[in-house]
UniProtKB/TrEMBL annotation, chain A:
GO cellular component: plasma membrane
ABC transmembrane type-1 domain location: 13-221
UniProt topology in membrane: Multi-pass membrane protein
Species: Pseudovibrio denitrificans
GO molecular function, one term: molybdate ion transmembrane transporter activity
Homology family: Belongs to the binding-protein-dependent transport system permease family. CysTW subfamily.
Subcellular localization(s) per the UniProt record: Cell inner membrane; Cell membrane
Main location: membrane
InterPro entries, A to Z: MetI-like (IPR000515), MetI-like_sf (IPR035906), ModB_ABC (IPR011867)
Protein name (Swiss-Prot/TrEMBL): Molybdenum transport system permease
Function: Part of the binding-protein-dependent transport system for molybdenum; probably responsible for the translocation of the substrate across the membrane.
From TrEMBL, chain B:
Record's protein name: Molybdate transport system ATP-binding protein
Domain ABC transporter: 1-231
NCBIfam families per the UniProt record, alphabetical: modC_ABC (TIGR02142)
UniProt organism field: Pseudovibrio denitrificans
Ranges for domain Mop: 291-355
Keywords (A to Z) from UniProt: ATP-binding, Cell inner membrane, Cell membrane, Membrane, Molybdenum, Nucleotide-binding, Translocase, Transport
Entry similarity comment: Belongs to the ABC transporter superfamily.
SMART domains linked to this entry: AAA
Record Gene3D superfamilies: 2.40.50.100, P-loop containing nucleotide triphosphate hydrolases
PROSITE patterns in the record: ABC_TRANSPORTER_1, ABC_TRANSPORTER_2, MOP
Amino acid sequence: MSFYLTDAEWAAIQLSLQVASLAIAIALPPAVLLGYALARWKFPGYTLVNALVHLPIVLPPVVTGYVLLVLFGRQGMLGSFFEDVFGIVFAFRWTGAALAAGIMAFPLIIRPVKLSFELSDGQLEEAAHSLGTSRLKTFLLITLPLALPGILSGAILGFAKAMGEFGATITFVSNIPGETRTLSLALYTEMQSLSGDAGAIRLTVIAIVVSICALVFSEVISRRLSRKLGGQHD
Amino acid sequence: MIDVDISSRLGDFSLAAKFAVNSGITAIFGKSGAGKSSLIRMIAGLSAPDSGRIALGERVVFDRTASINVPIQQRGVGMVFQDSRLFPHMNVERNLLYSQWAAGRKSAVGLAEIAELLGISHLLKRRPHGLSGGEKQRVAIGRALLSNPQLLVLDEPLASLDASRKAEILPYLLKLKNEFGIPMLYVSHSLGEIEQLADTLVLLDAGKVVAHGPIAQMLSNLELPQLASGPDAGSLLFATLNTYDEQWQITEFGLEGQRLQLPGQLGKVGQDARIRIKAKDVALARKAPEEASVRNVLSVVIEGITETSGPYAEVDCRVGEQHLRARLTRHSVHELQLAAGQQVFALIKSVALDQ
């Protein structure tokens, strides 16, 4: 058995990194805003929004993928809108894989984000307002930097989840080599082939290493930042 | 000049406050739950009352009928909170200058001057979490001052500190008062702090302003049991430091043309002082005592005698323009045949110097 990755496997890993990066870029800004809203505001429909956000965790991934296909397919409501207005196509493209991965990773991202906004109860913001900064500026200068540990650890966990997303991706954008065949899909393909055991093991090892690294990295970063910010709650 | 006339309902609690006070330090005093914090949050603009009007100096900052509600960012009110609320991700200097670099405020006094005055110059590069409670609170005061406020609001700034830390902060607050003359609203449930600092007192009870007026007058008003009863109740007198006697180590104060002596060196000649005398530490005599160990004897005129419940009577005496209270037994009052208008001698057993 060879320890070296084949070109196709390399391509799958690179594609996974690319897909996960775009997924986080898409998912992080709304996760931060929504995490803030859920942590600090009480509004009508709070429970519904909170449930919707966490839905991808409990929903079968194939359902999420199918809903995406219906909405973002070329005939879908949103799919045709994005194609007409921005010229962006999701169906059977790597961008679609990123969309699916971003949505599947969303609950994982928003959890630590929301938590870190909940840790402070708006008292520092009051002080900042009394010193003259507007709500927006206070959010950027006080609220956001203090939530940074949560945002970063959410982003890293989300990235790891996005790299390995399978069910929703294969349902929505299929398994096209070089376009949508990410790490998990490549692994699945190798398992299906008669001679794919070695490749499957190689990719499995990589998936495990990536996941462990992400978990450790996320933990280290949030600890370091918390220490640096220290005494947030005294 | 702070002119407040507001009312608000907060759940089961209703707040109705009407008072007008001049500059200097105004204490808002009341038990916890009396509505002190709610009141100053409305004055500062952190929340809005249901109705009424708030004016700071010439400026109306809130008026429900005229739909005026100046946002907190523009009210020019510097806040000092009980829990200093320093920004943990910035060092002390960035905290102090926050209103300048983040909100573009200009301050008449500089960072160096404020840091020096508050004794925090050596902390500028430190982060808040390494500071002691007293240091944090001084930085918070400096930060509020450097935002160039028209009014400084201090919400129980010493409540979370232990006794020695409190003693560490009070002199700085006095310095602020003397050197900047910035009007302050000082919220506290500690009468001791208020006696040392305040010029005016607003008494709040169950969401209502019960009374407001000059501090000494309020403290001797027997109709305000919150202030004037209790074993330690007494009088606050304003005196001037006359001389210090090196041989006997005695400081002499001038009070309405008379003298009070306190042991120890207690300040500089010519300095104003607040002297607190508990009513139970004052005895009255018809004649000036001779060969007595009590050194402080003031000639006073009895203004009135109030027989409270129980064995005691409160005797209100006048020293020049100021008031001194004595707590005697009703029996003594009867035996000495004390009555309003009489000139008697007050023997003061113990005196506390507040500043």
